[in-house]
Structure formats: C-alpha cells, structure tokens
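Example 3.2
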Amino acid sequence: MIVMPVRDKPRGTETAMNQIIAIRELLKKRILILDGAMGTAIQQRKLSPENFVLKEPKIRAEGCNEILSLTRPDVIGDIHSDYLNAGADIIETNTFGANAFSLSEYGLSDLVYAINRTSAEIARKAVRDLSGSRPAFVAGVVGPQRAHAFFFPVRG
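Structure, written as tokens:
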C-alpha cells in the first residue's frame, strides 16, 4: 500500500516526507483506521450492468469494479465519503485490480493509467472535502492479479 499526500499542488520529496512524519506522529497517539472493503461497498449499492459500460470505446465490463471510477465516479466518491465520515483515517483507491493483466479480461488494458489516475483523484477529492480539521490520507492499492506471470530458467 502506498500512502499519497493530499494536495492540490504537485508533491515533492519534502512534502511526501512531511506526510510520512504526520502519519508517524498520529500513530504515536492512536491507532489509525483504514477504510473497509471497496468491493463489498460497491455490491451493496446493487448497481445495474449499465453502470459497468464504458461509452467510448463501447466496452461492457460487468464485474470490473475499477471501471466505475470512469463510469460512476460519484458512486466511488460517495463510498470514500461514507468511510471518512464513519471515522476512517486512510481511504484506499479503487484500484485493487487496476493492472494490465486483470483489466485485459475486459479489454481495458489501455486504460490502466486512466483508471489509476482517476481513482486517485476521486479519493483525494473525498479527503479534501472532508469536513472538520482532522487529517486523512489516501492509500494507493494494488491487489493480486487473476493471472500470474511465471518465469522459468532457460537452460542452454
């Protein structure tokens, strides 16, 4: 998991270090709460198959929760806000399966960057919109892949 500082300006090494220091200081005082399962929260919304359709190019990706960052950013943002309002200190991006291997099953490999970037932006917005002055953080998430790469030694 990668924790991203939430800022409107580009991050520099110094800013990233400040965020790490802030997390460490908070951890000295209390346990930080990580959000819950994104997939479960999406399923609870009982979305129709049309929510998983990318319009340009027209691709049906039912079951690909990551595509919702492009097709229904409002839903993903609401889930982040729900977790933050429930007390989460760290929310995870909607990128569990947003890698070329997993997205290739849906014909979405070309959208890896767009999905990851948009997912991070949605999470960052939710943290910025959090009412009150308590700090909150965004963690980039990478889940296991459905396909595994195997490397075998070549013997000559």
